[in-house]
Amino acid sequence: MTGRRVNNRLTYLTLTAVAFFFTIPLYYSIVVASRDNASLASVPPPLFPGGNFFENVSRVFDTVPFGLAMINSVLVAGSISISVMFFSTLAGFAFAKLRFRGRNILLLMTVGTMMVPTLAGIIPLYILMVKLEWVGSLYAVVVPALVNAFGVFFMTQFLSRALPTELLEAGRVDGCTTWGLVWHVVFPAARPAAAVLGMLTFMTAWNDYMWPLMVLTPENPTVQVALSTLAAGYVNDYVMGLAGTALGTLPLVIVFALLGKHIIGGIMQGAVKG
């Protein structure tokens, strides 16, 4: 028992140390964002937040349409995350539990698309956006990302183990249609994995930079495009840039706080099943 307590304490100490070191960059970015540019050249550097954070935030909103960028990023990342969770769960259920001709080949082709480099499809995709007249619109960012192969593969692997075939058969005996099974059985069973997938998708969509930079305008940006505009001056204003970065990181923290319970539940469920 004593040895187990010692191991538990060492584990918690190790996790605390790791969390501390991972928190340092975020903390120091807040310190810099709350100071002025002159204080960055001081020796030793400042270690505690100053009183200029709200003034720097005000300069961010005066320099770029950051409020619009935040709204656009929430719309883009939220729409993509909901769509990926929904369609990936449907496709994962079909590949994991339904029997139809060509199932394995279709799944192999879906997974195979993950091997194609993203850069290889940017030019044809941009030409398509031009023909659809979506350049400058959020449709050009949202529509190409509504479904992805990783989500389909992830949900297929999860549902193949977490969804008993006997439960589906019992539902069919009770008179459930396929859509009834999806709504009453598949979606509840897939909730932990869908939460993890939603968080990963939201973070990816929120942090996406290259494609939004190509198809959006500075007047209608996402957060990452707006942050690149802040850093595009002849002289880098690190204080203002990190103030915008701190604001842009806040929604990710909120999403993790909202989905953290489901994520931990999914991890624990997978551990028990293993």
Structural notes for this entry:
The chain is mostly helical and 274 residues long. 74% of the residues lie in helices and 0% in strands. It is built from twelve helices and no strands. Helix 2 crosses helix 12 (238-273), helix 3 (66-97) crosses helix 7 and helix 3 packs across helix 11 (223-230). The longest helix has 36 residues, at 238-273. The protein starts with a helix and ends with a helix. Mean pLDDT is 84; it is low at 270-274.
Largest sheet: none
Distance between the termini: 25 Å
Radius of gyration: 23 Å
The chain-level mean pLDDT equals: 84
What is the H/E order?
HHHHHHHHHHHH
From the structure provided, what is the oligomeric state, counting identical versus distinct chains? Answer: single chain
Break the fold down into its secondary structure elements and pairings:
Layout: H1 2-33, H2 53-63, H3 66-97, H4 103-112, H5 122-131, H6 139-142, H7 149-162, H8 165-173, H9 178-207, H10 210-215, H11 223-230, H12 238-273
Brief overview, please?
The chain is mainly alpha-helical and 274 residues long. Helices cover 74% and strands 0% of the residues.
